[in-house]
TrEMBL record:
Organism listed in the record: Candidatus Intestinimonas merdavium
Residue span(s) of domain Peptidase M16 C-terminal: 184-362
Lineage: superkingdom: Bacteria
Record-given protein name: Insulinase family protein
Pfam families, per database record: Peptidase_M16_C
Gene3D superfamilies for this protein: Metalloenzyme, LuxS/M16 peptidase-like
SUPFAM superfamilies documented for this protein: LuxS/MPP-like metallohydrolase
An example Gene Ontology molecular-function term: metal ion binding
InterPro entries linked to this entry: Metalloenz_LuxS/M16, Peptidase_M16_C
């Protein structure tokens, strides 16, 4: 049996505890929420990596790794995520569940303490971060940002987002940009760190066999030194319902590639995680392009062979759907026309019963799989926390099961093409 509880431990510090005997490990996470902002995104993204380099008690990675090894090979990893217009910065830790430890060892309290130490007690010099750590991790961050262009499918979606949401916080990448990252100094990063500790809402998560009271006590003790300001900086979320232009915007970029990448960005007409038609949106996405039985996959890719791949993905916090495809350069017009034609078929209700049922089953299967994977479950509850929601996967599953053909058609009819991004070859 699984029991989920939510409670506030400190001002702006909220705990979601999932008590279950399903897993042999505990998952702990601590996440600071910050508004996405081009001026601070890179510094925010750098912080967890610098903090993970060492603490006052364990001043280097070797010492910190030894402390984790003593906890039956535990792990604490930096995590930088983007949920709508919130940048989620922190750590995800995995530790053996107490039920499987020898000699009745209380791993939970030690693990929570170590995570609190990593967050609150960094290795220091001259009243701030160690410059060596900042410079090394800054270089790594710049490399990660620059390397994004190497994965062309993800890069095309990144560029689509940047162009489609230019001027909106959502247009900022979770890692920020290379120029801002390269300009980060140890002193500036320390100021940003102290500001976040005081002003950022904090989401804590636990999944394991311990009861919620014990978890709350362990994490409250671990975060005892966390400074809290009277006013916290809550990330805001804006959903733009329509494209706001007469014709979709076309952005073309040429790189040294042999396969074109065509990405189409749609506004969902306001359909998003906060709206009643959110389950309808999920089923529509699965039917249109989100699964191997979708219209894009079966028709545009398999039947017509216009794409090497074609799929859709939702940003549920922003009211955006993106279609990603890989094409021959010369198939740009044909592929674009057929991708839009498949959307029109959804709008017209031209779907077989088996297509609709396959879409429902795919969404339900994904939700059930979430319940069986600790990492995915943690990410689900972080998303719910960011959205200010408490609906569990089982309740959302029940709503998905009730989605009708008419509701899918209604959501499809709200879709509006906003931006087209085409990555072509330099010779094309």
């Amino acid at each position: 049996m699984t029991q989920v509880t939510h409670r506030e431990l400190l001002p702006g510090v909220r705990l979601t505890a999932v008590q279950t005997n399903k897993f042999k490990s505990n998952l702990l996470s601590v996440t600071l929420l910050a508004p996405l902002d081009a001026r601070t995104a890179s510094a925010n993204a750098l912080l967890p990596y610098v903090l993970r380099r060492g603490t006052q008690r364990h001043p280097d990675m070797e010492s910190l790794s030894a402390a984790l090894d003593e906890l039956y090979g535990g792990a604490i990893e930096p995590a930088i995520r983007k949920k709508g217009e919130a940048q989620c910065i922190g750590f995800v830790g995995s530790f053996l569940d107490d039920a499987y430890a020898l000699d009745d060892t209380n791993i939970l309290e030690q693990a929570a303490g170590l995570m609190g130490e990593v967050l609150l007690c960094p290795a220091m010099e001259d009243g701030g971060f160690r410059k060596e750590y900042v410079e090394g991790e800054r270089s790594n961050l710049v490399d990660r940002i620059q390397a994004q262009v190497n994965e062309k499918r993800a890069y095309s979606l990144l560029r689509l987002t940047q162009e489609m949401c230019a001027g909106e916080p959502y247009g900022v990448d979770r890692l920020g940009d290379g120029k801002s990252a390269a300009a980060i100094t140890a002193d500036g990063l320390w100021e940003r760190y102290r500001h976040l500790l005081a002003h950022a809402p904090v989401e804590l998560y636990y999944c394991g066999s311990a009861d919620a009271d014990r978890v709350a006590a362990a994490l409250s003790a671990a975060l005892e030194g966390l400074p809290r300001a009277e006013e916290l900086e809550e990330p805001d979320h804006s959903v733009q319902e329509s494209a706001g232009r007469d014709q979709p915007r076309l952005v073309t970029e040429a790189l040294d590639v042999t396969q074109g990448k065509l990405a189409l960005g749609f506004r969902t007409g306001g359909a998003c995680v906060w709206e009643e038609d959110y389950p309808d949106l999920l089923v529509f996405d699965a039917l249109y392009g989100g699964t191997p039985t979708s219209k894009l996959f079966l028709n545009v890719r398999e039947k017509l062979s216009l794409c090497y791949f074609a799929s859709s993905v939702l940003e549920k916090f922003k009211g955006i759907m993106a279609v990603a495809s890989g094409i021959e350069f010369g198939n740009y017009e044909k592929a674009k026309a057929e991708i839009l034609a498949q959307l029109d078929s959804c709008r017209d209700g031209a779907m077989e019963d088996w297509e609709l049922e396959s879409a429902r089953r795919a969404v339900v299967s994904t939700l059930r799989a979430t319940m069986d994977a600790q990492g995915r479950l943690e990410d689900y509850w972080l998303g719910q926390a960011v959205a200010g929601l408490e609906e569990p996967p089982q309740a959302l599953e029940a709503r998905v099961e009730a989605v009708t053909r008419e509701q899918v058609v209604a959501v499809a009819q709200k879709m509006e093409l906003d931006t087209i991004y085409f990555l072509k070859g330099k010779e094309g």
